[in-house]
Amino acid sequence: MTEDHVLDWDPRDAAVLEDQRAAYDDMRERCPIARSDFLGWSLFEHSDIMRVVSDPETFTSATRRLAIPNGMDPPAHTAHRRALTRYFSPERMAAFEPRSRQLARARLEQLGGRSEIEAVESFVDPFAHQALCAFMGWPVEQWNRVSVWTHGNQEATFRQDRGAGAVLAREFATYVTHILSARRAGGSTSDMMSDLIRTEVDGERLTDEQIVSALRTWTAGHGTVAAALSIVIHYLAKHRDLQDRLRAEPALLDHAIAEILRTDGPLVANNRTSARDVQIAGRAISTGERVSLMWIAADRDPRVFEDAERVDLDRPETDSLLYGAGIHRCLGEPLARLNLHAGVDQLLRHTIRFELAGSEVPARQVYPSNGLRSLWIKLAAA
In sequence order, what are the residues at sequence separation of 6 or more whose Cβ sits closer than 8 angstroms to the Cβ of residue 214? Predict the structure, then answer.
């Protein structure tokens, strides 16, 4: 591909958004590193992306706006991540798991035995955001408010609308600081918000601004969980044989979810910035240029994954980039895995089968998400 063609590539083109996986698969094979006004330099091959995430000194994650811990480099990143990792410990996940499962089951029961539903609006979005609220210690009834933030941030990112993003950020900060003030006034409690108030990094307690930043990162990340849940339900609705197998062998569920999402990732990309002049795949990248890591292309790279488009439950997760890699691997991965398991498990238990309703291909969300906007399915209740 010529340099002119590289510069002409546009990730927001309608043909790309119609099927981002196919578009990025094509770019990986024809032009494994490309440049656009929207994403800067985009990397599509697994090996190139692994090179970047393995070298945080050359490819910095630091951002202008405070973003804890994703938008930090060591040593600040190391200290903040160490302080926050405890909130996703096995003990915390085990304690929260029954609540997540109960929320998923309750949401399905509220459908009242309906034989056909729009799954994103009826189940995926409510459950994913209710589970996040419950984990944070926020009122579960306000899940829709959180959903509006996550979807609004996605739209603002796609449109590069800094004004809209700033408004959403202020609304989120106001909400969180109000809860923090209430926790301080009410004395010690045992929920996440109270724990964050007492959290220290290098001997100093987190400020409200720092807590807001960390929670904003977690909330945006959980929008990806909703996208992932829609993708898994869509795949299972098309593959009754795998549904039946997972009902019979529930121990396979976590691995099946991860493998489905390797082939059809919920998050298109993350960014880094080049801290020095560097060459990748023969292209010169200058200091300060943006580098986009196209996860959903790398996870379907045939150089790494044999028959990469096929869901193979015998395939190990070793090389998957579903949760990233390196020092910035997703901090909330344990919670994401837990809520995905709870949502899919309860749907399988609630039904003896479910399948796509109608012949239309479900519409997808736009960058940076690859989830489904809507998904009509038919249910046969258990």
Answer: 68, 69, 80, 84, 196, 206
The pair of structure tokens assigned to 16 is 């790309």
Give the pLDDT confidence of 322-379 residue by residue, as tens digits.
Answer: 999 999 999 999 999 999 999 999 999 999 999 999 877 888 999 999 999 999 999 9
From the number of C-beta atoms within 10 Å of its C-beta (0-12, 13-18, 19+), residue 37 rates as: exposed
SS3 284: strand
Q: What share of the chain is helix, strand, coil (3-state, %, to 5)?
A: 55, 15, 30
**What gap in Å lies between CA 183 and CA 329, rounded to an integer?**
31
- How far apart CA 338 and CA 214 sit, in angstroms, is 20
Q: Are 53 and 328 in contact (CB under 8 A)?
A: yes
CA distances from 184 to 128, 195, 208 (A): 28, 11, 12
Q: What is the pLDDT of residues 193-205, one digit of tens each?
A: 999 999 999 999 9
